[in-house]
């Protein structure tokens, strides 16, 4: 594999590619480092190899922290577990027209096996966990990750433990328990859940907590969104990406994916402007950006966007730094704006997104209203989950008509009402 070691993002200390997520020297976060020098020798051959790969994230196995699979190609991995990725990138002309923008694309990652981008990160983390000899999958989750871990464990025949806040949306609880996982509701916020899982990971040595002791590998799965977007745009970058921020990992890893391919000369263009989206009821990253600091002060979440409700985001400072470096921003939107964002996306594209997507769509609308987006920019809006996971958010946001089974009643109660 191209991965060479784990490296501290703060002090640069290197570690072996093992189950480790924090630096012993400075307690900074670890990320995977790679050596891709040999891949740049024949870019055309590399593009052809990617295009000939399986229709999932394993087509990008050269850029993921996994050992070479047995057999002639990465197609072997495509038959293990639940392969994710290769989700549609949809040109959204009606959305662009509504907002007065030139070119908008929607990367709809609700088309993954459990209907969120978390299938990408779990696919990578679970494969690496198996390589390292772990026998149980686990996670701390705000909902989508719970679905993905439970489903992936079922597909792999592994036991799993999923820890969630007790007040999580019912749809996400049902969409987790159905896979036969050990589902644990914790009376507290996600940050409380995460602290508990960190403690348990130290006591259960054979458990792979995908977003704790497997976090450096898990996070790399988000890069595949950038790879797909670039490939779907004809091996080029968009001018701007608008993506949600919870922990900040997805936001920063999308940028890392584009940069890796730019550095190799595999794609044309420049690093895109990165705009982050948060809910006003949990916006430590947006608040830090507005204050001109990279210190994300912890907050207690109070928002309908529960999948983004991480009050103490691990990668928050890096998300702030990235937004500034790319001349982007991090914005926050209210719950009412989130509902309006869900409706806006649905009415103009036919895509029903969960509340996190409502946050992202509402942020795009805010950027357009402020005049931050140039008329000639190509913008990609990242949608990370399906609206069927957060149905309560759209209750009461539209009207319906109840009539007798007669034409005159339809004409009087429906058609006349529409024309008024």
pLDDT < 50 runs, ≥5 residues = none
Instruction: Give the neighbour order of strands across the main sheet.
Output: 4-5-13-10-11-12
The CATH C-level class name of the largest domain? Alpha Beta
What is the terminal separation in angstroms?
A: 65 Å
Assign the structural class, choosing from mainly alpha, mainly beta, alpha/beta, alpha+beta, or little secondary structure.
alpha/beta
What does this structure look like?
The protein is α/β, with parallel strands linked by helices and 420 residues long. It has four domains: 34 residues; 45 residues, no CATH class; 200 residues, Rossmann fold (3-Layer(aba) Sandwich); 100 residues, Rossmann fold (3-Layer(aba) Sandwich). It has 14 helices and 13 strands. It has a six-stranded mixed β-sheet with strand order 4-5-13-10-11-12, sandwiched between helices. The longest helix has 16 residues. It starts with a strand and ends with a helix. The model has no long low-confidence stretch (mean pLDDT 94).
Concise overview:
The chain is an alpha/beta fold and 420 residues long. It has helices at 43-51, 93-99, 118-131, 144-156, 170-177, 190-203, 215-220, 223-232, 249-264, 284-291, 316-325, 335-349, 355-370, 407-419; strands at residues 3-8, 14-15, 30-34, 89-91, 103-108, 136-140, 160-165, 182-186, 207-209, 240-244, 273-279, 329-333, 378-383.
